[in-house]
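hey all, quick one before standup. I had two proteins in the batch that finished overnight and I want to keep them in one place so we stop losing track of which output belongs to which input. First protein below, input sequence then structure tokens straight from the run.
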Amino acid sequence: MNLLNPPVVPPKTYFWVWFALLLLLLLNWGLAQFNLGPFNLVATLAIPFVQMLLMLLYLMHVRYNAPLTRVFVAAGFIWLAIMADLTLSDYLTRGSVPGTLRKSWEHGAWPPTTTQAPARANS
């Protein structure tokens, strides 16, 4: 893509993207009215993912930009995946805190009560 001569996107393309976004929104709302069992999560994640791709490619003009733009978009998604992984790993391992500290969290008591005296620093 030349920065001095950007591609001209016809208004018809924007209309069809808008129409697809509305259809996907209605589909997402319609599927929320039914219990799909294990496919609830798949449907509620797949439809917004397609919507995000449409907005990214057409409304943010990533489709018409240089390949370096796509590299930065991919890097952003990789960073998002890393942050989601770190957050979920922290959340999923919260139940594995050992000892009396965990019991104090479960009962809402702070500071945790221990049977031994706190260690003193040598001065």
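OK second protein, same deal, sequence then tokens:
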Amino acid sequence: MLRKGSRSRSRSSGFMWRHSGTCTRFFFCMDETASAKFLAPQINEVWKAAVSFQVDEPDSPFALLKMCDYFQMHKYVDIIVEALFSMPEKWPLCAVPFLNALRPDLLDSPNFPFEKVASATMERFRSPPLAATPFSSNPESDEAAQLFQRKSCAASLRTFSLVSYKP
């Protein structure tokens, strides 16, 4: 018998997932469809406010994705992947190899945001350390360098994803 204010110790009560100071309760019940509908808006709200999207952190969306894939929670994996695909600008550079190692079929799906990932990666390459190269003195060579970077980044994403992820 439980006293007032005590918690049930059953596994069906759910678990707490702490993310950037925000606690969100995910209920894993028998009806995956109903709980998935409840979970989708919460994931989007929490992750839009998230500061860190590092692959190695236990509080990151990638850790939750790996856990749900391990426990074969397919509806949750689909929701998490959809949420991740909507914000590739927050991905670290090692996210593509991580996703390829976790589920190789994700990179071939029509929903994979190759162009968004390529443009987000290009923004990282345009950071101030690379902008101070000798190419920036000549506008024509600067445009050529940017075009080359854009094309090579988009073309090498698939090759980059074949590199095995090592935590």
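Flagging for whoever picks this up: Confidence is low (pLDDT under 50) at residues 1-30, 130-138. The two ends are 44 Å apart (CA to CA).
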